[in-house]
Amino acid sequence: QKEVEQDPGPLSVPEGAIVSLNCTYSNSAFQYFMWYRQYSRKGPELLMYTYSSGNKEDGRFTAQVDKSSKYISLFIRDSQPSDSATYLCARADGLTFGKGTHLIIQP
Amino acid sequence: DTGVSQDPRHKITKRGQNVTFRCDPISEHNRLYWYRQTLGQGPEFLTYFQNEAQLEKSRLLSDRFSAERPKGSFSTLEIQRTEQGDSAMYLCASSLPGGKLFFGSGTQLSVL
Fold first, then answer.
1. Phi, psi of B20, rounded to the nearest 5 degrees
2. Within 13 A of B106's CA, how many CA atoms are on the CB side?
3. What is the C-alpha to C-alpha distance for residues A21 and A1, in angstroms, rounded to an integer?
4. Considering only A75-89, B2-16, B57-71, which range has the smallest mean pLDDT?
5. Sheet containing B5-7: which strands, arranged edge to edge?
6. Does B42 lie at the interface with A, CB-CB under 8 angstroms?
7. A54 forms bridges with which residues in the sheet?
8. Which residues of B touch A4 (CB under 8 A)?
9. Considering only Cβ atoms within 10 Å of each terminal Cβ, which end of chain A, N or C, has fewer?
10. What angle do CA A96, B3, B37 make, to 5 degrees?
């Protein structure tokens, strides 16, 4: 079992929809995670850190951690075509990344 | 802040040749990371440095791979006797301790 797992998608939604991206982790020793966005042929860029539990908001983005189920979510409100990218969750120390979920926002 | 710079952007080589990639981190960042990424996968950690000290290496980093950061500034990643399975994007990132990782745009390696 990989330490951080994501459904690779693709996930296709219409513009303006709320997007839910999910990640699971296996090692309870690590409580902080990060969400990265990666456009094609570019390096990942950090979107946001999570708290150890609960919700963290930043503009249209909300990161949520459920420690009991070891589940990490990223919600994107009012999705835009420019949000089309691969979204990666990772341990906060940067040593383990998920495979990423490919998101497509349809205009 | 010019960001993390990687050179070259693309490298095509023949199997068995040696290749070397360079990474210039953000100047005040003392941590530097190398990753490998193949299509449809997330970045896989290879190694990281704090200043000139190589603090951790992944099991993925075989004997054919070596990384250096001689003066605690730029870093090089060398792959000896390349194999077709080495074809991937090689990413570099830098950070302050415990801080946000900033990634470069990567070096795309194709081994023919």
1. -135, 135
2. 21
3. 20
4. B57-71
5. B5-7, B19-24, B75-79, B65-68
6. yes
7. A65
8. 42
9. N
10. 35
